[in-house]
Amino acid sequence: MPPDQSPETPAGTVTADARTDHARTDHDRTDHDRTDHDRVEHDPAEHPAAATGERLPGWPELLGITLARAVLAALLSLAAWAAVPALIGWHPTTVMTGSMMPRLHVGDVAVSRPLHGRAPTLGTVLLFDDPDHPGRLRLHRFVAVDPEGRIVTKGDANPQNDSSPITAAAVRGVGTLRVPFLGLPVLWIRTGDWLPLGLTVAGLIGLIALAGRPVVRRTDDEARDGHDDGADNGDGADNASDGADRTSAEAQRRNPAPHPTPTGGRPVRRMAAAVTATTAAAVLLTAVGVPAGAAFSDTTDTSADFAALPYFTCASAVVASSPWVYYRMDETLLSVLGAVDSSGNNRTGTYSSTGRTTQQTRACTRDSGYAMSFNGSNGSLSSPLYNAAPPNTFTVAIWFKTTTTKGGKLIGWGNSQTGLSGTYDRHLYLTNAGAVVFGVYPGAVRTVSSATGLNDGKWHQAVGTLSPAGQVLYVDGVQVAADPSTTSAEQASSSGYWRIGYDNLANWTNTPTSNYFSGTLDDAAVYLTALSATTVRNQYLAGT
């Protein structure tokens, strides 16, 4: 063997250098595969979440998105309340000024229901052709019928009736729904008030943008395959097969199966767009449904319910319930001691000769007449003789206004027409702290009381009822106390009188300092029935 010739290498044997080169090649290929794998995992086209930087929002952002969607939903609901009735022939109108304050505010949308040939009801709010401004509408309350049979109207906040009566043919509908402040953009457009309109539009755009943000991160459902280079088992065929497998894996990594369509963002954006479009359409429909602006005069004074009232005045409400006696206390001549009974029963009352003055402002603002002020020391009013045993089913009611801290009798039954009665209950009285107490005496003192503070210088209505259903006290049209176990009062054997503004209060709960009431009284009534809660409420609404 020549000295420079290498020994023969057996077939199928790999030298150390060859093995090293092969390992280096495999290592390079592995690095290449890893690089491809990384490149595939970070491919922006296949991973939009990574490319766009979308992320799951934090709690503050999530709260803001939720609130924005809630506000948009509320606006959509309000717009629907105003716009949808127009689809069935109702009339939405924007309130442009304040003659129906405070129940209808400037910028409210009032929706009126057509009468379809029926006659309007006294006390309802009517939408009608403005007789003083052709081509415009007016929304005022139906308050009377003139001698020629025409409808007389009045704004609740206006001191006088409208100057021009209308015919039934001019009526478009009766006020039924109120949507607060939704018509403000219409008002701003008509008056050229662009700043609040622009701010509102900008705010709405901001809400829409915030509400349209996704709250769920896009998902990545790509299966991340493990990397398998294939072990070298020393078999050349295996190497070839391993290379083929590796090539297939590389192709699979470079062209993975399609990902499922991300579900976190697009549906939310579609929902926001739908909400926006619907809201805009509803608002536009509302605006189109406002042919005039319901022009009013601008004075403000009192309140009234927007919906139809069963009674428009206290007098009509009281008389409808058939009182035993009803003193409106409208008398202006103090030398005349008689108090007119407006119940129709001619039970003229008797004033004290002193201690009272007529007040120009009465409790029920839509009624004509006056009120009576009592001085808290010798002023009072009493009914004629109630010539029977006092009733166990009855109602006593009165309006009062005071700032006194000495309390006093409002109205009640006693066995004496003047001075202090020896038998006395079935009464309403005021405590020093300004609470109204309703008391009866079925062998023991039984009282129910309101909260304190009604001596605030404002008008309040107090009503007490007794019946087999129990003892109930109402203040300003709302039940404030009741005792269902008390169903009778003192069983006096003699007749008596209904006293107003003064009588005995000794030994009653929270006895006030004074038996005399100091303040203004109005519309005192006694019924021999227990008025229902609905009737009491309607009487109160008739005066407000």
Q: Mean pLDDT, nearest integer?
A: 77
Biggest sheet features: 8 strands, antiparallel
**What are the low-pLDDT stretches, counting only 5+ consecutive residues below 50?**
1-20, 27-53, 218-265, 281-307
Under CATH at level 1, the class of the largest domain stands as Mainly Beta
Q: Beta-sheet strand percentage?
A: 15-25%
> Can you tell me the CATH architecture of the largest domain?
Sandwich
Give the terminus-to-terminus CA distance. Answer: 132 Å
Radius of gyration: 42 Å
> What's the structural domain tally?
2
The helicity comes to: 25-40%
Class from helix and strand fractions: alpha+beta
Biased composition (Basic and acidic residues): 18-46, 220-230, 243-253
GO molecular function: serine-type endopeptidase activity
Keywords: Disulfide bond, Membrane, Signal, Transmembrane, Transmembrane helix
InterPro entries: ConA-like_dom_sf, LamG-like, LexA/Signal_pep-like_sf, Peptidase_S26
Short description:
With 544 residues, the protein is of the alpha+beta class. It has helices at residues 16-41, 48-52, 59-83, 184-191, 194-211, 236-254, 266-288, 314-320, 533-542, and strands spanning 91-94, 109-113, 125-129, 137-145, 151-154, 171-179, 325-327, 338-339, 349-351, 356-359, 371-375, 381-382, 394-401, 408-414, 424-430, 436-440, 446-449, 460-467, 470-475, 478-483, 497-500, 518-527.
